[in-house]
Amino acid sequence: MPTYLPSALRDLQLPLRVRLWDGQQLDLGPQPLVTLVVKDPKLMTQLAHPSLDLLGGAYVEGRLALEGSISEAIEVCDALSQALLGDEPARHSVRAAHDKRTDAESIHYHYDLSNDFYALWLDPEMVYSCAYFETGEETLEQAQIAKLRHLCRKLRLQPGDKLLDVGCGWGGLARFAAREYGAQVFGITLSREQLHWARQRVIEQGLGAKVTLELMDYRDLPQDGRFDKVVSVGMFEHVGHANLPLYCQRLFGAVKPAGLVMNHGITAKYTDGRPVARGAGDFIGRYVFPNGELPHLASVTCCLSDAGLEVVDVENLRLHYARTLAFWSTRLEAQLAQAAQMVPEQVLRIWRLYLAGCAYGFSRGWMALHQVLAVKPRADGSHDLPLSRADLYRQ
After folding, report:
1. What residues does the DUF7884 domain cover (predicted)?
2. How many Cβ atoms sit within 10 Å of the Cβ of residue 11?
3. Which of 32, 249, 279, 322 has the most CB atoms less than 10 A away?
């Protein structure tokens, strides 16, 4: 047994093997499923306090290697972290500054990575958000189409409706809304790579007369109420806690009276928006989403209400996102050799941990995914929504 392993590791019963740089190893359980290969001797003292940020960062930086299934590695490393740290209280993180330049740089870091890399594991329409599994038996492609349809039904889209898509990504929803519902769509993004790809696909699908996509910050949206409907998918995570009220005000100003606003995004576990404990949120902030901040559902509904929008429907799709991320992770793991030709080795390590780790995190309830539908009431308080949800589920 290695003498320089932290004593705290020796009494654990986990399906984990720890192998050191000199070949010595210790099995922490009778049937190890995962091996942690310690390449940097300096890690030894740190392993007595194995936060998920520490373990993930060491793997990304090449100080630690993993052998075994990435999903099993995530689960075992979480068990290791919890066994030694317990349910460590989450720390309040320093709130990020969110100006136009900083937000554009953060979006560039995450989304301008490589369209070909994303295409390896996303569906053909490049929908990079939580899918909707109506029965649980759907393929990823079927579930993403179901999600786009679910959003359009909630928005009660009609032919000719002017739809604003805030944070349109690769344009999957914009194209679907134009093609299947006859909407006139104006989409905005801060990602140049996404915009280039999405515009090409709009042309290829003959939707140029119905879909306009622009590079634009949400703070520059027109405030003349020109849109019938507004949809925002996976966007408010990038806005920041401090700017969430302004963001909601911009959506209010963009939509006409009686118009609908749909926000679909990841929400925090804690009401004050602090990241999850034991460093998982810190890892994502450091390596995956710089300056990303998750608002709690309470904050989202509060800011929408304060902006003058009335929340009329809320749906939690947390387990749908766990399933979506598991699909993405499995697809990436099946094509690691190809992925390694598209992105640097360190980037690929980040994404392997990120997709598998988030699938695990959503399944455990570390964060959630909420669709929040709001309406901008007319001056007399009226709007045109039906009295029930029955229309959403009619085939």
Report:
1. 13-78
2. 8
3. 279
* Nearest in space to 336 (alpha carbons), one of 323, 351, 358: 351
Instruction: Enumerate residues 6+ apart whose C-beta is below 8 A from 307.
Output: 245, 248, 249, 251, 252
Q: Which of 193, 188, 190 is nearest to 173 (CA)?
A: 188
Query: Has 358 been annotated as catalytic?
Result: yes
pLDDT > 90: what percent of the chain?
76
Q: Is residue 63 classed exposed, middle or buried when 0-12, 13-18 and 19+ CB atoms within 10 A define those classes?
A: middle
Domain ranges of the chain: 7-85, 100-393
Structure confidence by residue, pLDDT tens digits, 10-28: 677 899 999 999 999 989 8
Q: DSSP secondary-structure letter at 270?
A: S
- SS3 (DSSP) at 369: strand
Class for domain 7-85, per CATH?
Answer: alpha beta
The helix/strand/coil state of 375 is: strand
Q: Please determine, looking at this structure, whether the domain spanning 100-393 carries the CATH number 3.40.50.150.
A: yes
- The single residue of 152, 168, 248, 358 carrying the catalytic annotation is 358
Residue range 49-79, pLDDT digits in tens: 899 999 999 999 999 999 999 999 999 999 9
Q: Taking Cα atoms as reference points, which of 140, 141, 199, 156 lies closest to residue 175? A: 199
Instruction: Give the integer Cα–Cα distance in Å for 51 and 282.
Output: 10
End-to-end CA distance of the chain: 63
Q: How far apart are CA 115 and CA 350, in angstroms?
A: 17
Query: Of 392, 257, 369, 389, which is closest to residue 312 (Cα–Cα)?
Result: 389
Question: Cα separation of 298 and 115, whole Å?
Answer: 34
Q: What is the DSSP letter of 222?
A: -
Give dist(CA 194, CA 257) in Å, integer: 31
Nearest 5 degrees, angle CA 15-CA 20-CA 26? 35
At residue 226 the predicted structure's pLDDT band, cuts being 50, 70 and 90, is: very high
Phi, psi at 185, each rounded to 5° = -110, 135
Q: Is the dihedral of CA 162, 167, 171, 176 positive or negative?
A: negative
What is the H or E stretch that residue 246 is in?
helix 244-254
CA atoms of 375 and 210, how far apart (whole Å): 24
Q: Do domains 7-85 and 100-393 have the same CATH topology?
A: no
